[in-house]
Amino acid sequence: MATDAPVRPADWAPFPDDPRPFRPARSDRSPAVRLRGVIGVDEDVLDWVPEERARYTRYGAIVVNTALLGGVSMALAMGTFRSDLPLAVVILVAVVWFWVVLALDSWLVSSTHGVPARNPLRVLLPRLVLSVLLGLFIAEPLLFQIFDKEIHQQIAVGNEEKVSTYKGMLVSCNPADGSDTSGRAACGKYQLKVEGSTAQLRDDIQRNTARTKAMRAQVDGINKTLNAKMATEQRECARDKWIWYGDVADVSQTCERARADSSSYRTTSKIKRYEGELENLVAKGRTLTARMEKAGDAYQPALQRSIDAKTRQRAAELDDDGILTRAHALEAVAWSDWYAGFVFVVLHLLILAVDAMPVLAKLMSGCTTYDTLLTARLDTSRRLHSDDLQVQHACATMEYEVRRHRIEQDTSERMRRLEHDHGLAQAERAALFRAELDARAARILRGD
Known about the structure:
Blueprint: H1 32-38, H2 43-46, H3 53-81, H4 87-110, H5 120-146, H6 148-173, H7 198-236, E1 243-245, E2 248-250, H8 253-268, H9 271-317, H10 323-334, H11 338-355, H12 357-365, H13 369-446
Antiparallel strand pairs: 1-2
């Protein structure tokens, strides 16, 4: 019976002739490679730790989601603050901003790969600050949309208060009776120029009244003096002061002097002219008063129309969609009560955390096995590069030695050639010299 027992398990199968190695793992060809490529993951290194593929895939998804959030935020901002722009322009700007955020976050993340575990905070903290600044820019349009209804209500209430205050200043600085308010410093920019204003007429009446009063005082003074002179004349020329020459009566010289004095004063004092001027001033005063009453009836409606027109113009000038106006309204809404402020702060922190999540995820995950392998590869590449530089330096040094030796040999050869040529030239000159001497000696011997 023992011989019938199987020697191998039933599920046993022989190993293939060429088994797949355990490491590195087979390359991943799924779409997740593109997500990891966004954050600069080296797939050749990641093949040695395939267990971290899921981590870095989600890491890339976080970066893409942050860029999408930035694109949506920019689209909302452009649609809110520049509602006159065409839809195609809004989409184009949103796509460009999506690409900018994606490129920036991709750099922020990819530059942290292989960070040594001993100083991650020093490397990641500046990137976290930059990420938070970017998140602030992305978060504001989203908060504007979340609190859109409250912001519009706050802007409407604020504009209504501004218009009411402006109208109150116009009414205060432009009284219905036309009185002058130019002496008030607060009314400098609230003065209105309305035709038919009673202010000028009132000034004319005041000046005419002053002149009438002065002229009346002058006329009364002249009349008082003239009356005194006339009384003196009547007293000196009375019947009981006559001088009788029989049946003929005559006035005294004192009476004649009194008559001459009163007549002369009546002429020199110009009382008739002054009385005429006084009558003209009194008539002018009555005319101005009548005009004042008529102008008041027409000026008040014209003033009210001018105030209403200025108020409507001020209301039209107030901004209700500007970014600063909405920002101030959002601030007022956020701090209107403690709960609104709490919601505002929580939403702000939440959006900032989402926007800064690429760097936060790296900071929270710490140094991974992929970082360790990448650091080792970088160190190896650095050493290989250093060795390659040393080899290149050695090769260049030897090449320079060969070139130097070749130059030295060439120089020696050229010097030998120069010396040989120089010796030949000297020998030729000596031979020519001896030939010349021999020729001269021969001529001398022949007696030539």
